[in-house]
Amino acid sequence: MSNSTPATIEDVARIAEVSIATVSRAIHTPEKVANSTRLKVNQAIAITGYTTNAMARSLRLGRSNMILVVAPDIGDPNFSNILVGLENEARAHGYGILIGHTQNDAQRGLEYLKFLNSNQAAGLILFTGILPFGHQTMTARLPPSVGVFEPVFNGGIPYVGVDDVEGARKAVDLLLAEGHRKIAFIGDSRTRLAYSRRRQGYDTGLDAAGVAPDMRIVLEGDGTLESGRHAVEQLFMRDTLPTAFMCVNDQTAIGVMIGLGARGYDIPTDFSVTGFDDVPQAVFMSPPLTTIRQPRTLIGKQAMALLLEFLADGQPVETEILLRPDLVVRNSVGAPSRRWTKR
């Protein structure tokens, strides 16, 4: 086939050895086509270079079949699994995905909203936990939007994520069951709702166990590995040491483990550590990290399903869907040490 001649749907059908109608179904309603047939069609599309993407279809149809996904950090270990759920659900309903990577820059988030304002995208999935400042000047009203991973602090838009309070409660209850009472919470935040909800679960668990407020140690953090390492240094400088570190996420917990290891302490003999998220690195730590697992792919699937309902009906069916977290017990938690001594 000549490179100068655009491939047609007939070319795809011939190579895949199926009818044109089957090719059309495989593209537009893939859930109605057998996996083996869909694979043959997709391979034929790849060979011919046939343009079937949602952007091209939306231009022909005069409406957008693209969903804009705005994320602050596509390197976040949580992002890819949620994206899989989002994209699979979108594709099953004839939609495609545009990814807007803000790199934590509010101005970039505002620029991506131009896609919505110019009808290049039909709806918005927001990972950032905050609406781009000044979005009101970009569009008279926010298009159908759903927040994932991080509840939207200033937006009042529907949200799909893990139940942060329940997850944190599971972590603190495990530490309490091991005999810990002086438990530090690392990563409190006044602007990240997911983190403040995890702090709420920490306090609720300690309240239920009758642990006095003056036994609690709470440090703020931004969820980075460095914030966990810095928290360890702060506590050693203050000489107010807990027996356990309950961290707002796995990155913070890994930072805490590195900080304790650098000082010659053993986990869990000297200190216990828990995380939240169950990122891939958690299982490779030494010792492997006890943490709370988020059902990330399911979060993505349900968030996209909610957005598509919103697009169809003009209003969200539910304002918040919280999925159950799982406690993943590994080897970073043990009974409290009676003395904090270097080995």
TrEMBL record:
Residue ranges occupied by any HTH lacI-type domain in the UniProt entry: 7-61
Record keyword Ubl conjugation present: no
GO molecular function per UniProt: alanine racemase activity; DNA-binding transcription factor activity; transcription cis-regulatory region binding
Superkingdom per UniProt: Bacteria
Entry-linked SUPFAM superfamilies: lambda repressor-like DNA-binding domains, Periplasmic binding protein-like I
Protein keywords: DNA-binding, Isomerase, Repressor, Transcription, Transcription regulation
Enzymatic class: isomerase
Protein name, per record: Transcriptional regulator, LacI family
